[in-house]
Please model this.
Amino acid sequence: MGFLQTIENLGFSQWVKQSGSLWAFPGILLMHTYGMAVLVGVIAGIDLRILGLAPAIPLSPLRKLLPIVWLAFWVNAITGSMLLMADATTKLTNPDFGIKMLFIVAAVIVQRLIQSRVFGDPDVDTRPFSSNAKMLAAASLACWLGAITAGRLLAYVGSSTGL
Amino acid sequence: MNVIYEVLSNTSHVHLLLNHVPTTAFTVALVIFVIGLGTKSDVLRKAGLAMFFVIAGVAIATYTSGSAAEAWLRGTSPMTELPPHVLSNAIHEHEDSAFWATILMGLTGFFSWLSLWQWKTVRKLRSWSLPLVTLLAFAAFVTMSRTAYLGGHISHVEIRPDVVNVHNACLALLDEETKHPGSVPNATPNCPWQTAVDDVAKTTGEPAPYTSQARAVGDFVIGHTWMWPTLETLHFVGLCLLFTTVLIVNLRLLGLIRVVPYAAVYQLLPIGMLGFAINLITGMLFFIGIPNQYNANPVFYWKIIFVLLGGLNTAYFMLADDSWRAGPGVSAPAGSRVAAASAIFIWVAVLYCGHMLPFIGNAF
Model:
């Protein structure tokens, strides 16, 4: 507990939490929300395409969207860590935060598998998607839905509430 | 500029400016659409559908401004004093009617959009599309007209039936007095409207607690602890789905995945519209739950303005054909690239306003 308290007492953590500046908590959370919109938005598009929506779109050109996905992922990893520092003692001890991390780890693994197995398949645009590819896409949607839900509930569940 | 700002900062003015659109403009749209159906003119039918879609957006803005207008009329909370000629129940009746009218108009807008979308795809317009829109549009028109009539009751005492009756009775007594002087000893010397309003208020006594339907929905939202987090989670899911379409379609038009033809990414539009619908419903439930969070919140006004701009931007994509020239590997024309960049800017701004509601404004 002492370690988490130390993190929360850092000047930066205090600035995020208590400065009242729009650049602090509101701004960082805003970037986290934009990151989520881009990350989950684009991934959901790819997943839904694999599941059969918008069949006219060839999948392989969507590869070009992947750098945007990973940029958004790292934006959220960084802004998420900043928000975590400000509430280290409460959020890191909140089981809901652990659930969110499990969903995100699972989602990242699924995403890597989609990139290697589905995008990596040279015949991806000439054959119908395998049931494995569809399973991965469905799992990806489920993991991100879980991550969003657990993340939103962090403001409501546990010892400390916030936005 | 100052005059404009002053007018717009009085939410009653805003409501009075907006509230004529869902009735008058919708009438024009309905006439155009019905003539289009009769003459089988594609241009008129599409024009009617696009107008339904845009007016539905204005109807949402009108609904929210109406709540703000009531707050303005009552003064800052928790004061509940209304101007002397306004009866509280008149506002509630108007609000409930507006609630249903806005829902019907929203549905009309949604299915109008869907018809326009089907029109553009290779697939034909579904057989149920236009009949459904016609049915919804007439239902919306009738309900909205009733809303306008009830809205008139709030400050036009001269059309309120109960007040008119009292006023007429008073005039009849005066007539009697002129014809047979001295026959009506207690006749009021004259019959001003305010006296009639006061009489109505006196006979009805304290306004009976009106069970407002909109308020019942709002109380359900704030009365259950699981509602707000659930709605917020759904609002986030809807936001992601909206961004799926906004990003992929518009990045294509801006040249990122040029090998994919516009006709293909066009198939993604209903996903974005589904996300928008989820967010409109959850957002309106937030609003009806705690209207005072948004009534005097400037960030909320900006959010509504950007949503309306988003509606116009969407209407452009439903009507203009230039984007369709972007075949496989072909760059989009300049006009549609401008529209694509605007779309991304508008929805980024909508998200910004929504996020800042608690930080710049007073919501949570």
Summary: Chain B touches chain A at residues 229, 232-233, 236-237, 239-248, 251, 256-257, 259-261, 263-265, 267-268, 271, 348, 351-352, 355-356, 358-360, 364 (CB under 8 Å). Residues 162-207 of chain B form one domain. The mean pLDDT of chain B is 88. The radius of gyration of chain B is 25 Å.
